[in-house]
Amino acid sequence: MFYRLILYKDVELHPRFFGPNMRDTLKAKVTAEVEGTVSGKYGFIAAVPDVVDYGRGIIREGTGFATFRVKYLCIVMRPVKGEVMDCVVTSVNKVGFFAEAGPLNIFVSNHLIPEDFEFNTTDDTQFVTTDASTRIRQGTEVRVRIVGTRTDLTEIFCVATIKEDFLGVVGDPT
Amino acid sequence: MPKQLRRREEEEEDQEPEAEEEEGDEDEEEEAGPGKKGKKRQRSAFIDDAAEEDSDEDEDEDGPSRRRKRSNFVDVEAAEDEAEEDDDDDEEDVGGTFLDDEGEQPTAAELNAARQAHLSREHRLPQDKDMSYEEIDRFVKERFGGREDMGDMDEDGEGGGGAVNQQALLPTSRDPRLWLVECKSGCEREAVVCLLQKAHNLAAAGNPLQIRSAYMVDHLRGYVYIEAIKESHVTDAIRGLRMIRVSKGAKQVPEKEMVDAITISQTAKSTLETGGWVRIRAGAYKEDLGQLFSVDHSVQRAVVKVVPRVDFAEISKRQKEGGRAAPFGRQATGNARPMPRAFKHEEANSHGVLVEKRRDAYDAEISYFIGSRRFRDGYELRDVSFKGLRAEEALPPLEEIQRFNQVGQSTEEQADGSNILGDAILTGGTMAPIVKFSKGDKVIVTEGDLRNMVGTITVVRDGGKNVDVLPDMEGLEAVPMSASAVEKWFASGDHVKVMSGLSEGKTGMVVRVEDHLCILLADHSREELRVFSRNLQEISDAATAVGEETHAFIGYEMHDLVQLATGDVVGVIVDIGKDTCRVLTNQATSDTPDVRVCRPAELKQKLMARRMEAPDKFGNQINTGDLVDVKQGSYLEGKSGTVKYIWRGKLFLQSKEFPGLGGFACISSNVVYVRGGSNRGARSAAGLSMLGMRSPAYLGTPSRDAFSAFGNGFGSMPQSPNMGGPAPVMDRGYGGGSGSYGGGRGGGYGGRGGGRRLAQGQRVDISKGPYKGYKGRVVSVTDTAARLELDAQYKTVTVKMGDIRGMVVKESQADLMGNGFGGHGSRTPSHQPGNRTPGHFGSATPMHPSMTPGHTGLAGSATPLHDPAWAGSQTPAHPSTTPSHPSLDGGYASSPRGFPGTPGRDVWGQAPTPASGYGSSMPAGTPQTFSTPYSPPAATPAQTPGMGAGMGSTPALVADTPAFAADTPAFAAPTPMLDTPGFGDGQTPGLDGLTPGLNGGYTPGGTPSFGPGTGITTPAMGLPGTPSLDGGYSLAPSSNGGAAANWSMYKGLAVRLPDGRSGEVLQALPNGTCSIALGEMDESDSLHISSDYATVEQAAQELSQVSLHKDNHVRVLSGPLSGQEGSVFIVQGDHVVVKIAGDVKSMAAREVGRLVRAS
């Protein structure tokens, strides 16, 4: 799920940037430092569309750097238990498959794949239904429901299921 | 105790007078006065006491009273019947008399009537087969009427009804009492069976026993319970049974304790029960896990199913020696304990052991026998005394159970792996596992009214025996429960930690729950674990983030690079268990990873391999954190991963594409290539320039690994800043310093060697072998051979490296070069010097600008360095850095440059490095990227030093001119060489430049390689084919090697700038910078410069030539005629015929530059 949040970030700015374009620099800096990171509390910070307030810089003694408490708007992505999302399979192995939804890594265990799918390595490593009509392999788009999430310092990992109604393969690139 | 009993006896005596009352109403006793009740209550500990006490009571002590008691209930009829059975008891006669004595008691008739009524109630039903439906109904109501209301409650009762019902089942004062009688220890069962038989017989005889039931409990030895309304009924019943101590009489169980008496206590139950798990205490099976097959509490023995440990060879030997006597006698000393294995009779037969197949006397199932040992389904059944067993307190570890169950599986055809666990759980379920609950655990209630309710533990009391469970449903309050009535509960997606067992300490996410088992996906190793849910505990995300792990590997963490104690083995910890960890080592082959299980002592130390690097397949430098693709020859082929550690040519990669092992894999660095980022760019750029420069070296020496050198230089040169900035003064010291730096680096790289020198898609010449003379495009390359797609034939052939001579640069590559990749840039500096050198003159290509690195003025450029003075200045630095340098110092003579064949090779390798250093910096700033000054020229031994030096200094050089100027003198010295005939010959542009050095002083050997081949091929060379810009020839090519040194010849030329504009060179500074007046080309390709032209500064190397047309004024830029001017007579492809001073000369188009106007 995506949220629009206002967060704060302390940014240090080198004195050489003090000047007319300082705000742009600050914004670029915040964006660079924050985008793509994971906050255990909020989730993935997907984008920083705007800076709300640059704050007032405080010059640090000795270094000349200025510290700004920048208040920025951001879009965060945080998976929630029970959420249904579409993702793309990145790898398949016998215990299940891994998929990605943007920055999110998702694992679907073979226990959470309907029984009529079987693991098969003859052609490609994939899960194939017994009638061979549907297959899950690298690149397949699947719709999953998240059953659990784990947040580390640097990543969010989800376990998801496709063993429910209306879940499963939604598209195959080939 | 005895006292209490005695008191009881007395009490019975006291009751005598009231006996008749009791007789009529079985409740009488209960309803007796408070005093009596009190007394009875004193007996409250009755059961236990009875159980513990020995029969030390004096039998005769209260003989009469007992007799009297019994007399109340003696049936005349029964007494007669029993008389015969009574062998040792003479009391019944007395009893008989007693009966008569009880005059005041109800008359016999009354008694009889009462009893008949009772009996009819009890017994009539079964006898009256013809009872009508209504009668039956009435009978039922009559008999169980008391419970009717309870039944109703059941139906409409909700929730609380159960407890009430339960209460209603408790014995009331109207129900029969329980009596405890002593019997011989071990004969309890027999006694009960005898009573049953007796009851049956007497009932058949029409004189049934009046007791209601009799039973024994296994844990209470020496006693039997009998249910009866009156004690006399009991004494009647037991009279004559020899195993019962009739003389001791029956002791009544107080009402309050009746329930307890028939409740089998939890502790007593849990000890040993069929299906439970035990361990054998001693012998060959010591500490082995066994499952109770059958248990006989009366004899304190059990049959235990164990995994056989059989040494067939030993048995066979004994059978042969001494027949079958005691084949399982004492273990032969010194013999190792046989491994536990499933029993297979075929295997036994193959050892010549006699195996008997027959039905087991115990249960008539077919078993195999070896001597007295019994085998069934692969297990051995052993009869063991309780003392030899130890009950497992909790369910044994899953792994052990699995191993145990597999034995059975392996012998059954229908073995189905899936139920291995199923069995384990079923059988394991009979044990009361010890579960440690803690506050906050989610539990599900498994027993009682609240069964299947899910809740959270709020309080753990009594050391874990009781818990309070707060139901998940809202509005309910916490319910106190026994811990045994709840089980841990998890749902898919929960994040849990394993609290015990082999996987202790691991964390994972629950993906599936099957009864008592949870299937986890381990966080780190990404493997599936199967763990009993009771061994799990839910954890918060924060807990893993902190990652406090309780394992024996203090100081180590998951995914650390560690060195093992044995040999030169390093690896990455991919899994940490309680006492062991798994290490993915660097000993992996291309097919399989090598994973070792290590204990803490086997880990020597943690390695900090932070700044390690390794070359990839193409010689690119790999650093940690790089993304690499696995090329071939590995089970990981086609996958890619992030380099986590590098250790001696092995990479530890991590990627979620890799199965298991936490996504780690170990692979040799030479089967991967680095992906993306600057490294890639560096590679191509470096590759190109290398080719150019190298070619000489190349041809000769395969060992060189230009690529790596370049790549390295690229990334890492710290000096770049200098480059960018202007270095106004050429300081020799400075230059020297940097040179040394470069040298140092170079040395390092030089050592590596062995990379590939050809890039796919490159075009090369074949100089030897059956395909001599062909040209082709490289399809694939190995260290020793290349596959080429021939230009002339539609054919792909394999050619030895040594047979490949020059290289032809692909256009795209040329472009790259033009762009001024770092690599080139680096050289540039050296270039310039060349140019400047006065000495170089002719050779000096002012124009060279576009010149490809190799080409150029290389010679020239190099030369400067040559200069002794120059060299001298630097020398100091050199020695320190490269070993090879010394040679440089000594004299250029030793062509460090790495001519083909020359020992200098290595040196060469080093030399470039510096260059690479530059390269890195170059991009930063120097416009004059081009060329590889080095190249061939550099190659010349003489130059080598220069090279190094040049390189070193380059930074400074780049910076510019002034410095150069200073140097020039030095150049001069070298120059002579340029003049050498070789030079002259080497008309070939590229060649010339370089060759001079070569020819002059240098080994002929070297030259050839240089020669045409090189010249031509080197990208720099500016083959006709290499259109560097706009189709026009680049200036560089046009310039002759010799001419390269003199940029001043550019003056007045019409040139094209890299950005496409064109103009006239107004002035060419000695450092190669030209100031250009911008103009416009018209359709006829002539240049017009307006009066208010703008001027730009541009490095001469970057300028390219404009196309030539008939009658254009041109200046010859290289060759013996350099400096001469004339006009174009004919343009033919890449050759022009030029009229010079009335003479007609044919020369390569690139050797001439078009003048804006005739001078």
Shape verdict of chain B: elongated
Distance between the termini of chain A: 29 Å
Sheet-strand content of chain B, in percent, reads 15-25%
Uncertain regions of chain B: pLDDT < 50 for 5+ in a row?
1-105, 147-161, 412-433, 543-549, 677-756, 808-1045
The oligomeric status of these chains comes to heterodimer
Stretches with pLDDT under 50, minimum 5 residues of chain A: none
Keywords (chain B): Nucleus, Transcription
Subcellular location (chain B): Nucleus
Family (chain B): Belongs to the SPT5 family.
Domain NusG-like N-terminal (chain B): 175-265
Structure in words:
The complex is a heterodimer of chains A (174) and B (1159). With 174 residues, chain A is mainly beta. Chain A contains 1 helix and 14 strands; from the N terminus they run E-H-E-E-E-E-E-E-E-E-E-E-E-E-E. In chain A, the strands form 3 sheets. In chain A, strands 1, 2, 3, 4 and 5 form a 5-stranded antiparallel sheet that branches. In chain A, strands 6-7-8-13-12 form a 5-stranded mixed beta barrel. In chain A, strands 9-10-11 form a 3-stranded antiparallel sheet, with no helix packed on it. The radius of gyration of chain A is 22 Å and the shape is elongated. With 1159 residues, chain B is an alpha+beta fold. Mean pLDDT of chain B is 62; it is low at 1-105, 147-161, 412-433, 543-549, 677-756 and 808-1045. In chain B, helix 23 (706-716) packs across helix 33 and helix 27 (822-836) crosses helix 35. In chain B, a hairpin with a 2-residue loop joins strand 31 (640-647) and strand 32. In chain B, the strands form 11 sheets. Chain B has an 8-stranded antiparallel sheet. In chain B, strands 42, 43, 44, 45, 46 and 47 form a 6-stranded antiparallel sheet that branches. In chain B, strands 16-15-14-13-17 form a 5-stranded antiparallel sheet, with no helix packed on it. Chain B folds into 7 domains: 1-155 and 172-264, Alpha-Beta Plaits; 269-327 and 337-410, no CATH class; 433-546, SH3 type barrels (Roll), CATH 2.30.30.30; 556-673, no CATH class; 679-755 and 809-1026, no CATH class; 764-805, Roll (SH3 type barrels), CATH 2.30.30; 1047-1154, SH3 type barrels. At the A-B interface, strand 6, strand 8, strand 12 and strand 13 of A face strand 19 and helix 21 of B.
